[in-house]
Amino acid sequence: MRLIGAKRTNERAFTLAERDDRLAWILGSSRSGSTWLLKMLSELQEVVPIDDPHLGHHLGVWRPIPLAWATAEETPRLTTLTEVKRDKPDYFFSDRYRDAWLPALRDLVVARFDAQAHDIAGPRGVRQPTIVVKEPGSHAAALLFALFPRSRLLWLLRDGRDVVDSWVDAYRRDSWALDEGAYPTSNHGRLHLVRWLSSVWTYRTQVVQAAYERHPAPRRALVRYENLRSNPAAELERICDALELDVSGQRLRSIAEEHSFERVSAADKGAGKMVRAATPGGWRTNLTAEEQQAMLEIMGDKLAELRYLPGPGAVAA
User: Fold this and answer.
1) What is the pTM of this model?
2) pLDDT one-digit tens code per residue, 113-138
3) Model confidence pLDDT, tens digit, residues 18-65
4) Which residues are CB-neighbours of 122 under 8 A, at least 6 positions away?
């Protein structure tokens, strides 16, 4: 394989084709603190951050479309185009021709990530960087690990009710998300939006959980947002262990303090901002009783399994 960046240096260039164990994915659900986590890891010189490449959204197109949650007779079952079409020979990513397209797709992703890694790590003189990818389309986790079986997994998990609450806030006038495809939601559309977002959180959580359980323990870490919020330095230490990064506790405490929610200026956080509240359990006051019930109907079983509902061992919120 041609090494991306070879024209920029006479030295042998780094390539993921040889070292995909230096690739790590932050997977889970958007609005779970993934941007915050990536920013903290970006402070480490050996880390190359890649923020929202959206591979999963291109490779895991939703079926049915979100409009179904407002028009169907009953709450639809969420899946992806790949799952619907995988046994159809003419479908581009069909199982029948997987041996043809999978290596080619891997080469494409390697070339793209290598190019960015050389741009960032090259000037730093880092010869073996760790590429940390924050991938919002986490519902493509199975395919990502088929492409890169030796890569690492950081499963960032947050109470789905707080995730939905945060996304509902993003669908408002003057929201940070309007430039990225969101829109102001009408009053009569909020409940449908809650159901759709609850379905997305549940599906993504199931897929990432399955990938986590299949992945070798030394190359994975489960990070609960609630723990990251309460003790970020300790969670960063666990994450660095999973990434095989040797970083001092003092350095991690300094990074955690520098990127704390309290350090964000008042003008850059709050309702409608990308950095919103960072307070677990805010859904209790921000969402109506009907919206809360709708969430439980869709994600209740998964919340209970992951200890987010009241009971022995429940996560404090």
Assistant:
1) 0.93
2) 999 999 999 899 898 999 999 999 99
3) 889 999 999 999 999 999 999 999 999 999 999 999 999 999 999 999
4) 5, 8, 9
Angstrom distance (rounded) from CA 36 to CA 40: 6
Strands, E assignment, the chain: 23-28, 47-51, 62-63, 79-80, 130-134, 152-157, 220-224
When divided into structural domains, the chain yields a total of 1
Per the structure, the complete domain to which residue 94 belongs is given by: 6-161+216-269
**Is there a domain that residue 26 lies in?**
yes
Q: What is the CATH number of the domain that holds 253?
A: 3.40.50
Domain membership of residue 79 (yes or no) is yes
Asked if residue 145 belongs to a domain, the reply is yes
Residue at 102: amino acid letter: L
Mean pLDDT of the chain: 93
90, 127, 222, 236, 264 from 251: Cα distances, Å: 53, 22, 22, 10, 20
d(CA 1, CA 21): 18
DSSP 260: -
